[in-house]
Amino acid sequence: MKRREFLQRTGAVVTGGTAAWTASRGELSAAAEANGDRQRVLVTGVENELARRIAAALADDWNVLTTSTEQIDADLPFTKCSLESESEIQSLLRDVTAIVHAGCPASADRERVQIGQAPRQTYHLLQGAAATGVHRVVYLSSLDQMDHVDSQYLVDEDFQPRPLPGTGQLVRHLEEVCCREFARSRQLQVVVLRLAALISQNTQAPAENGAPVVTASDAIRAVRRALETERISDGRGIETWSVFHILSNPDQTRFPIQRAKRLLGYSPQS
Q: What digits encode the pLDDT tens for the residues 226-259?
């Protein structure tokens, strides 16, 4: 499917395209330098607990801003944003050099609504990011898109996702496709982290051939590496697009993480 056709089908093409965005990369870089050495990172979807924990951990080394489409109480600087308004997004992204995009909490019960809403909001966010000079977008996707690949295979990042309707998986998949199209047009550098199911730090990992899981500390570790690694490329395809499987128990599952180890320096510690 061509990029414009995909964006039209998800309702993401808006009148005026990117022409309404006026901030230049040079202006943004100068503003960032004026704020000191700490780069400004925006974390979206902080109605989600993992996104909040990621934001709190990143605040040790970055100037972290947070946002959600819902009003929440937040310990870090927070701005409610619908991700539907160009002016709101332009203000939200002022001086931002990187985005950790958690998206909306995918829900099987609300999938029909979210399929139209979430990719459109992601499109608007990425459109603003491309126009205002954001250096990198880290999108937090889900490994459950790969659950239904034939169980006899070791499933690495070269396998195509097979999301099932009615599970909430389609929402994450469509947001991921939106990210991919921006990366392929070389408007943004996008790193996709397909996270396994989140478990408590103290939960015992499943036995051999069990379900893939990830602890919050390992997820945070992967996000840090995705932000810190200066050049992410293995000489395959487009350098602006990278996908990694992130889990804490790779040796007990069929989802290897060699690519994340080699290119990000990610190693689960949990």
A: 999 998 987 777 789 999 999 999 999 999 999 9
Cα 139 from Cα 113, distance rounded (Å): 21
The alpha carbon of 161 is separated from its chain's Cα centroid by a whole number of angstroms, namely 16
Two structure tokens written together for 219: 């997820």
Query: Which two structure tokens, joined as six digits, stand for 187?
Result: 């408007």
Distance of CA 27 to the CA centre of its chain: 25
Which residues of the chain have a pLDDT value below 70? 1-36, 201-209
The CATH fold assigned to 3-264 is: Rossmann fold (3.40.50)
Q: What sign does the CA torsion over 198, 199, 205, 207 have?
A: negative
What pTM does this model have? 0.84
Query: Given this model, what pLDDT does residue 10 score?
Result: 47
SS (H, E, C) the chain: CCHHHHHHHCCCCCCCHHHHCCCCHHHHHHHHHHCCCCCEEEECCCCCHHHHHHHHHHCCCCEEEEEECCCCCCCCCEEECCCCCHHHHHHHCCCEEEEEECCCCCCCCCHHHHHHHHHHHHHHHHHHHHHHCCCEEEEEEEHHHHCCCCCCCCCCCCCCCCCCCCCCHHHHHHHHHHHHHHHHCCCCEEEEEEECEEECCCCCCCCCCCCCEEEHHHHHHHHHHHHHCCCCCCCCCCCCEEEEEECCCHHHCCCCCHHHHHHHCCCCCC
Alpha carbons 243 and 235: distance in angstroms, whole number: 14
Amino acid (1-letter code) at residue 107: S
Can you give the residue ranges of every domain in the chain?
3-264
